[in-house]
What we know:
Blueprint: H1 2-19, H2 30-50, H3 54-65, H4 71-76, E1 91-101, E2 104-114, H5 118-131, H6 146-155, H7 164-174
Antiparallel strand pairs: 1-2
Amino acid sequence: MRSAIIRILLLLPAVLLLSAGAPYSNARPWKVTAYIQSHLYLAKELHLETGIPVPFILAVAGLESDWGRSELARHANNHFGLKVKPEWRGLQYCKQTQEFSGLDAYQETACFRKYPLIRRSYQDFGRFITARKNYQATQGLSVWDYQGWAEAIQQGGYATDPEYAQKLRGIIWRYQLSEFQLTD
């Protein structure tokens, strides 16, 4: 009897620890949860201004900025990996980056847009996606068609990674980002 009580007392902390976890503790690492808590309002604002789905915005920002921890996010407030284009008149931040030619990855130096505030990065992403002709395929897509959004920007040339759309869909699904979509 005494040994049974001792076993129960030894197992009790483990059982309590396992049962007390948050429902998304395994689904979302702390860096993802922290990023969402800090930036969800920006994604919602951008959605209301542009119609771009909140989960899609969060997935692109998370992938491109490593959930706010990348060099580009920390030093240039660029959470979407937007590069300098000929029309860009703002600041820039140049660094080594991985690109793809087909399935072959290589390193090159590229210059990216630099922003004084993270909010400007979100706003610029919205303008970039809604105003450029190569992303017209996003127009008319449902806010729930994350696969369509991911395929449209990949086909429009947003990233050279041939698995970019698949990565975005995986992030939305794995981290249950669809729960943040506003129902306009």
